[in-house]
Amino acid sequence: MTKNGEQNWDLVITGRTSLFDLKFADVWNYRDLLVLFVRRDFVSFYKQTVLGPLWFFIQPVFTMLVYTFVFGNLANIPTDGLPKPLFYLCGITAWNYFADCLTKTSTVFRDNANIFGKVYFPRLIMPLSIVVSNLARFGVQLILLIGMMGYYAVQGVHLHISAALALFPFLVLLMAVLGLSCGLLITALTTKYRDLAFLVTFGVQLLMYATTVIYPLSEAKEKYPAYAWIIELNPMTGIIETFRYAFLGEGSFTIPGLMYSTVISLVLLFFSIIVFNRTEKNFVDTI
Amino acid sequence: MKETVIKVENLSKAYQIGQIGTGTISRDIERFVRTKVLGKEDTFYKIGEANDRSVKGSSDIVWSLRDINFEIQQGDAVGIIGKNGAGKSTLLKVLSRVTGPTEGNIKVKGRIASLLEVGTGFHPELTGRENIFLNGAILGMRKKEIRAKLDEIIDFSGVERYIDTPVKRYSSGMYVRLAFAVAAHLDSEILIVDEVLAVGDAEFQKKCLGKMGEISKGEGRTVLFVSHNMSAVSRLCTKGILISNGKILQTGNVEEVVETYLKVAVGNKSADSWDDLSKAPGSEFFKLRDVRMIGPAGQVTGFFDVTEPVRAEFTYEVLKDGERYTHGLNVFNDQGVHILSSHHSNSESLEIPSKKGVYRTSVEIPANLLAEGGYELSFAIMKYKPFEVIFHKMDILGFSVVDELQSEDGRGSYSGKLPGLVRSHLKWTNI
């Protein structure tokens, strides 16, 4: 609301707005839209597919098998004493959620240019809905993970689920925030510099190897003590290690490590929303 | 006095045309350093020019809108008109916050809903009912508002039978009906509508126009309407804003603004005269002196109602004796379609050899023949034995046929567009 002599205006549209006007109130007003977008994604995914949600299983199962064979058996990378398939599946589940959030939000402007060009709603709704929609797939993969844990427990493998499991919702939130922030930055930049989009596909691949998905952090520290800090610098490492520790009882879970991931995620989120909001105003003209 | 609900101040919008991409990073960095680090003025927008498509510009920046100022009062129905590329759509986009202005600001009181397209965000896999919710939410409605109006929306759309069928199975007409039905039930104080009514069948168009009239007149909401359909604009709106090349040409009463638009858009040449014979169009045999379109009261005009005869007068000077000749004309509509051709076949100049001097001839196109729109006339002089066109000049005069919605215009109570090249009164009989 701006005071304008005799009148109170509900809305002032200007070319220049404050950098820190994040428009959260606006997003809140459109919360129903967020729910409907999530519903749309969900419904449209199932319609006219034969296997439906089974597709959510197929990808992680095959990835797990390939990783077990290549990294576990061929390369003989140790897995903190855990059964190899379980170790990989745990990493894959967490990583997939983060990677999905990142890649899908990173094309949000391009994919929705049509809608965005025709009607206003807070643009942030769209990436937020993607992050929430991805929870469905994450949930299915989590069930797979729990199923595998049950299988190994029956086989007599001793798995101690730690108290860190209480951190689970927080971990999911962190992954979502981190994936969303990176995606928002990339989508904002790709409206102008289209070539950055190529970076995403192999960038996410490479980033996975810089995260402790296929090897434990303890191993990296032991073998390459001089370079392990690079892996620790990656905020996803702290999250995945905690995730693994929470579910399987093994992993380098440290409070400072998780704190570091949290701080980085929040800073990135703040920064990326600013960039996103600056871009959303005029991106229609350049896309 | 009514309250101002929209106030636009010094609004400008610049577009970069041509290729965006190559060199943008380096230029952006350069610009950033110049303006932010060195504190110099941003020269990027200095070089802009008016947005005139037909003239090749010297700069990459065009001003699609330049220094627009206007106010809209609560309850007004405002028609925004202008030629293609005048900046209407840009103005609507800025008003509906799809894109931001480059300079200036817009102050708004109340909720804005914009309808730049019907069915934005419709998902083909979802059913009609699901899409009503989705589309309504995209347009800014809360879920409970939509639920409260659901029956009304379904009823208005007339697709009740298919409401639980995915919209990909809809015909395009049903799709549009459903989409408009959602938009028509928006609860915002201000409604912005682009030319979405160009779709759908005549019956539905009438329903839409009726609904829009109801919104602005009955419910006291403010409506901004962009259309090329001048009769719809005149009927729905009370005020008009005419935009040309990104600037406001005229604001005011809708009739006046529509009239100016027709003059500008059709580029009406309702009269022309040549005092200097060497510059006048013609041949060795004759020269034109004066041409004009004459209205029913004998005045020069470029506008004729569909119920009025269209009269043209040509004054010319014959320079040679002893020729037998006559006059003719062609009529073209604004799409360049040749509508009709006529020879003055009973002229006495065909019987009696010409004498030097000034002559005047007049021709009348009957009332209730031409459809609404812009027209151009060509004038010809020809000989019959043997047949030879001595002179034929295109676009010598122009005029517009408008429909002022009088009772005798063959519409009855139908208010939509009547398509067709001609608009004649046909004789209908029930047997």
Keywords:
heterodimer, A: 287 residues, mainly alpha, two-stranded antiparallel ribbon, 3% strand, globular, disordered N terminus, B: 431 residues, Rossmann fold, Coagulation Factor XIII, Chain A, domain 1, 5-stranded mixed beta sheet, 8 helices, 19 strands
Structure overview:
The complex is a heterodimer of chains A (287) and B (431). With 287 residues, chain A is mostly helical. Chain A has one domain (22-286). Chain A has 13 helices and three strands, in the order E-E-E-H-H-H-H-H-H-H-H-H-H-H-H-H. Chain B is an alpha/beta fold and 431 residues long. Chain B has two domains: 4-11 and 66-263, P-loop containing nucleotide triphosphate hydrolases (Rossmann fold, 3-Layer(aba) Sandwich), CATH 3.40.50; 271-402, Coagulation Factor XIII, Chain A, domain 1 (Distorted Sandwich), CATH 2.70.50.60. Chain B contains eight helices and 19 strands. In chain B, the strands form four sheets. In chain B, strands 6-7-8-4-9-10 form a six-stranded mixed beta sheet, sandwiched between helices. The longest helix of chain B is centred in the middle third of the chain and has 17 residues, at 202-218. The chains are: A mainly alpha (287), B alpha/beta (431). At the A-B interface, strand 2, strand 3, helix 2, helix 6 and helix 13 of A face strand 1, helix 1, helix 2, strand 5 and helix 3 of B. Strand 3 (11-14) of chain A pairs antiparallel with strand 5 of chain B, so a sheet runs across the interface.
